[in-house]
Amino acid sequence: RAKSAGRNTHKFYSDTMRIHSLHRLDIENELREAMNTKQFQLYYQPKVDLKSWSVVGVEALIRWKHPERGWISPSEFIPIAEESGLIVPIGTWVLKEACRQIKAWRNTALRDLRVSVNISSEQIYTDDLLLTVKDAMASNTIGAESLELEITESLLMRDVDSTVQTLNEFKELGLAISIDDFGTGYSSLSYLTRFPIDTLKIDQSFVRDLHIDNDDAAICAAILAMARKLNLNVVAEGVEIDEQLQFLRGHGCNQIQGYLFSKPLPPAELLALIGDNVRKSAYA
Ligand code: C2E
Ligand code: MG
Ligand code: MG
Ligand code: MG
């Protein structure tokens, strides 16, 4: 009996894996198709300064509307794009589109926003990222003060020397650099002084329960205290409720990003929000 149960279990797992890998292959092919038929868009989520309660920047977040499957989440397709190498052309599209949008905002209330773009490790290690960024900026006549790169901790640790060099080149160009999902990367804190970093983004997993979980509150407070001593700007991600905001403000957090202020929005809705609502906010 145990044997047949074992066989059934084995069969179950291999079927699941087969379905899983078929799905992956589908997605991979469909990502190529999506590139060619313009199925991607960028949404933008505001980052709000806690002193002035004004929007000081936005994060560009890719959105994929598949013609049959509908919306597919980046947490589903970005890992597949990274493994297949497709993240390189997709990432180039993201950079170009963000710069095109910055240019389009030039004569609007959004002209001073700094736009941050997520960069995957494959982009730093296999593509000439610096050239791609310079091209995207030059062809839209964008200044470096309009652009920021978000990179994750694990990316920094893969090849420290070459990453320090690449990031220094971006700094020389004038771009800002943030560490995304900070606190989840299990890496040495010494890199905070080795890499040319402007901002830490506290991962939303620490923010989510900070108003009810003492450990999460302690981690957020410690990150904020450390960042202040190292002169780093801090953005808290995933802020949804007022108690989280009050705690973060009380511990000197600089900016928040989260549903409390706004979810990621298509450009027209962002313009409507920032044009109309910022000054009227209940938190002003
Ligand atoms: P991320 O860079 O850490 O982006 C923050 C994620 O948190 C976004 O998910 C955003 O919609 C979500 N979020 C913001 N505020 C809240 C909140 O208050 N509550 C909750 N529960 N979630 C909130 P999204 O857009 O689904 O993106 C997921 C991840 O996919 C991103 O995490 C990033 O790692 C990756 N990603 C998105 N766009 C790109 C891109 O253009 N290039 C690359 N390489 N990765 C991207
Ligand atoms: Mg990010
Ligand atoms: Mg994050
Ligand atoms: Mg993330």
What report would you give on this structure?
This protein is α/β, with parallel strands linked by helices and 284 residues long. It is 51% helix and 19% strand. An eight-stranded mixed barrel has the order 1-2-4-5-6-7-8-9, surrounded by five helices. Strand 6, helix 8 and strand 7 (199-202) form a beta-alpha-beta unit. Helix 1 (2-36) packs across helix 2. Residues 45, 61-62, 73-75, 78, 87, 91, 94, 118, 120, 150, 180-181, 204, 237-240, 257-259, 264 line the site of ligand C2E. This is cyclic-guanylate-specific phosphodiesterase. Residues 24-278 form the EAL domain. It comes from Woeseia oceani.
In short:
This is cyclic-guanylate-specific phosphodiesterase. With 284 residues, this protein is an alpha/beta fold. It has helices spanning 2-36, 74-84, 87-104, 121-126, 129-139, 153-158, 160-173, 191-194, 204-207, 214-229, 242-250, 267-276, and strands at residues 40-49, 55-66, 70-72, 114-118, 147-152, 176-182, 199-202, 233-237, 255-257.
Average pLDDT, all residues = 89
Per DSSP, the total helix count is: 12
General form? globular
User: What's the helix-strand series?
Assistant: HEEEHHEHHEHHEHEHHEHEH
Helical percent range?
40-55%
Main sheet attributes: strand count, strand direction, barrel closure? 8 strands, mixed, barrel
Q: Identify every distinct bound molecule in the structure, by name, code or SMILES.
A: ligand C2E, magnesium ion
Rg over alpha carbons: 21 Å
Report how far apart the termini are. 68 Å
Low-confidence stretches: 1-11, 277-284
By secondary-structure content and strand pairing, the structural class works out as alpha/beta
How are the strands of the biggest sheet laid out side by side? 1-2-4-5-6-7-8-9
**What fraction of the residues are assigned to beta strands by DSSP?**
15-25%
| Quantity of strands, as a count | 9
